[in-house]
Each structure stands twice: as structure tokens, then as C-alpha cells.
Amino acid sequence: MTTSGGEDDVDRRPFKTSLCHRCAAPPQYIHTERSTFIRCPIFKRYPPQPVLACEAFAPAAGAEPAVQD
Buried b / exposed e across 15-31, counting CB within 10 Å, b at 16+? Predict the structure, then answer.
């Protein structure tokens, strides 16, 4: 299992509409052979995806707009 939060993981991000990808509190991506999990650094948990509304969401500087699946 590997962990990463770098921009090189863009193509491996699931649920493109999830707010987690555009949040100022950068999530931690946990990649396994078959899955990718997104850990929230604020709530210290893995929220069910896709996250479409979040009370703690703050857009990251230069974040891309939502992408439709």
C-alpha cells in the first residue's frame, strides 16, 4: 500500500465530483491494488465518496471547478 497526495496522482483519483479533491485541507490518498481511499485531515476519517457537501470545505487556491462524471 502506498500513500501520497501529490499532483502525479490526478489520474488515479476516484469520484471526480468529490469536494475532497478541491479542498484547502489536502486529503491523503491511500492506494491499494484495487481501491483508492481518501482520508480527510480535518475529520481524521475516510468519508463515504463522493463528498458533495461538507461543513468544513474551503476551496483550495487555484482549485479546478467540479468535473462531471
Answer: beebbbbbbeeebebee
